[in-house]
Amino acid sequence: MSPRIAFLGIGPMGKSISQNLAERGNLEKPLILWNRSPQSAVDHAILLGEKAKAATTLKEVVEQADIIWSCLRDEQAVQDVYEQLLSCSGLEGKLLVDSSTIPGTDANDLGERVRNTGAEFVAMPVFGDPTTAAAAKLVCIPAGPPEAVERIKPYLVDVVARAICDLSGQSVGTASNLKLIGNTLIFNTMEAIAEALVFGEKTNVGHHAVKQLLSTLYPYPQHMLYMSKMVNGGYYMEHALADVGHARHLTSQVMKFARENGASIKAYEQAVEHLAVVEKNAGPHYDITSIYGAIRLESGLPFMNEELVRNNKIAENRITEKPLQNGASEMPTTNGVSETPKQNGVI
Q: For the whole model, what pTM was predicted?
């Protein structure tokens, strides 16, 4: 008999992961859904039909599920939810899996607390945004006792993920720390793409030629996603896949981890500075690819790509630009452009 699975956290990432789990995981029983805001779990269960059901309490989750998988917004949410979860009786023999992004020390502490209840624990942060999650193309990083990791593996590749980076046998904190290191790759990639596009625009080469070169040299989905949001204006016109405010909280964890270990990550520090520019000049709700807009400002260009204004006829909506403290132009407020894009995901 296959295990009964519960999923905790029905945010943008959780919705996509749990939907794929319910629809592609060959589950014998409906997936149990739980969220701190109960209506979100109820609504998602209705969407998934007979493949899922909502639980109203964590006690109900523990009573019914063999594997309890969580994906929560930040370490405070993890602390709050697991405080309730670990107070429930009947956890012996169950597997708890957490895909939240938390510091390695927090993951190790959490793993010890879980084991003290008689349950097993796997830390399994993931790489990908809600769009990647919806396409079942995440990269999962499971760490913990090998036998515990084996229990979750059947629900990863071709269910919610395209691949795993298997850290079986290593401390659960290792997976969380690897996620922080991987975060530097993401932001360094964005920074390099943004700089190249702006460099092209400041010369007679133009950003279209740079875009063609990047597409040829690095034809990878994630590179294409970042570049597309930059050159097509998604960094300020679309809802954020990962917002600057949450990203800055995560980057503070990465910077702290680097300092504690004496690691030099200067390219990453530059990307973090550009996130700060975006937050200062536009607020915390813009997409992280707004790094591109920050580099445009530093290069004497307006935050918004003027060519996009012409092509999309945004100018017809009577754009007004206000001076910023650094003398550059502020993001426009238009009928077609959201001044504060809604947060729509995590990194």
A: 0.84
